Amino acid sequence: MDQLLKFINNLNAAQRAVIIGGFSVLFILLIGLLVYSNIKAQDKKLNYTIATNLTKNQVMLASNELEASGIQFSVIGSGDNLTLKTSKDFVNIAKIKLVTSEAATSNHAGWEIFEKSSLGTTNFENKVKYLRALEGELSRSLESLSGILRASVKVAIPKETIFTERKTDPTASAVISLKPGVFLTQKQIDGIKNFISSAVSNLKVENIQLIDQDGALLQMSSDDMENQKSLTQNKYKQKLEEDYEDKIVALLEPFVGAGRVVARVSLDLEFKKRHIQEEIYEPEGTIRSQQTTESTASSTGNNGQTGGTAGVENNIQTPDGANGNASTQSNNESAKTITNYEISKKLIEEKSNNYSQVKRVTAAVTFDSSILADVQNRDEFLASIESVVQDTIGFDENRGDKITVRDFKFLNTTTTGNQQVDVNGNTVQSGASDGDVVDTLAMVKSILRDFSEYFQYLIAAILLFVFYKKFIVNHEVVVIGENGQVQKIDKDGNPIDDKFIDEFMSNYEDEFDASTAQGRLKAKVKSQILNNLQGLDEENAAKYEILIEALDKEINNSPEEIARMIELLLTEGSGKFK
């Protein structure tokens, strides 16, 4: 204790300020680390999720159940999107408690509603229960989708009737509450509608309406659908053009040179699906039936017979030859055939299921003209390139395709910032890509996040070690003896010989100033004088300092004479200086 008091009393103001400041900073850091560790530990106790997307009523029921079981929990969130959390030790027990409690029961009644049926249930009640169960099951299914917080489906099934004209189609509607920051795409909306339509008999997709929690209709307008369709078609067209360009460049680069050819392709696409149906009737086909009709007719007459007056005489036929006139007889035969053929019809139906059809292709290819220096026949070389490009894009002259091949002088590769740009204007990747850098940073952040709790203890240990080495291990204690003699001791209580240290430092400086004899002499004289300054009062010390300055001046002016004098003094009477 006495040594500590002596140590404190012999400290000057600067040393005391440094020690007090160091202890203060260290104390504040330790307190801050302890508080931070306590807060982190408290948060860690309640960071295990029990249930999410709970309403206020469900949280009230769950809190009663957890409090009755003595389980600590916390409620995070706002509105009807609440989350329950607890510690790691109680997370499994809390989940079991909630599953068996009323808080876990869904607001939607499903098929379990038929488990409580009675014998006196009427047909109307069963229909109502079926409708409720169907709506509840659909609502539960929609709530299981990601991005949907809650859902409520309503189905309207019309009453059955025997009159066809009075039949109406069933309809359905749904209120879908989305999670914050979630928006449904048109594909997701169509999927939900088709899901509801397939669950209800005779329900058409166009008879289903969806709205969100704000009452907005979840359906893209006709303009939005057209814009979306146009955007999709443009992306598809751009992708096809890039594929053609990559094929051309990949085919020409091996003999033209990397970065010395540029290709641009423009496509004219038709986004229409064709459905052609054609009926062809053949003039002659299979005979279905045939009818033949034959008829025969005969007639007899007298040649030269004239007509007489009307009467009985004229109506009586006279025998042949009685009047000398010759008689004639004629026979007529006819045949009629009716043939019925089967109607021979050929139905040709053609459907085009392609998303698009290429109407016209236009390609432009440019390459560095410097490669033509080694080409003997320029026209033949250009024709060969054009032929290769034609085969690459599937050139069709009837379609109106066009290909242009030109040679230009390319500029050298330029550098923009830290990126190299080739003749195509594309960035040349060199070294590690941005994706690798991002992955490395993400990995470092993940490691820091996982071990952040241990870094605080590491920092505290480093500060303690630095303080120990700076102020405790290497500190010298100044002790004043009974006769007023000043003595320095180290941390183990051993006296420190300043003379030995000064001689050591003098020798150390002498190693760096040993180029001249004058430098060595100055160092030795300075060491001897400094050894004699210890233990003197301020007045004598000032005298010696003046003497040192005068000697230094004389040494610089006449070094040889002073050197001989000091050498004589050191060899014969060095004891007089002590």
TrEMBL record:
Main localization category: other
Offer an example of a GO molecular function term for this protein.
cytoskeletal motor activity
Statement: the UniProt record of this protein carries the keyword Membrane: yes
**Topology relative to the membrane:** Multi-pass membrane protein
Q: Where in the cell is it found?
A: Bacterial flagellum basal body; Cell membrane
Q: Name one GO cellular component term.
A: bacterial-type flagellum basal body, MS ring
Where, by residue number, does the polypeptide cross the bilayer?
13-36
Where does the record place the region Disordered? 282-334
Recorded superkingdom: Bacteria
- Biased-composition ranges for Low complexity? 289-303
**Where does the record place Polar residues bias?**
312-334
For the Flagellar M-ring N-terminal domain, which residue ranges apply? 49-219
Q: Which residues form a coiled coil?
A: none
Q: Where is the Flagellar M-ring C-terminal domain?
A: 252-410
**Keywords annotated in UniProt:** Bacterial flagellum, Cell membrane, Cell projection, Cilium, Flagellum, Membrane, Transmembrane, Transmembrane helix
What GO terms describe the biological role, i.e. biological process, of this protein? Answer: bacterial-type flagellum-dependent cell motility
What is stated as this protein's family in its record? Belongs to the FliF family.
Role this protein plays: The M ring may be actively involved in energy transduction.
Q: Which NCBIfam families match?
A: fliF
This chain belongs to which protein, by name?
Flagellar M-ring protein
User: From what organism does this protein derive?
Assistant: Arcobacter arenosus
Gene name linked to the record: fliF
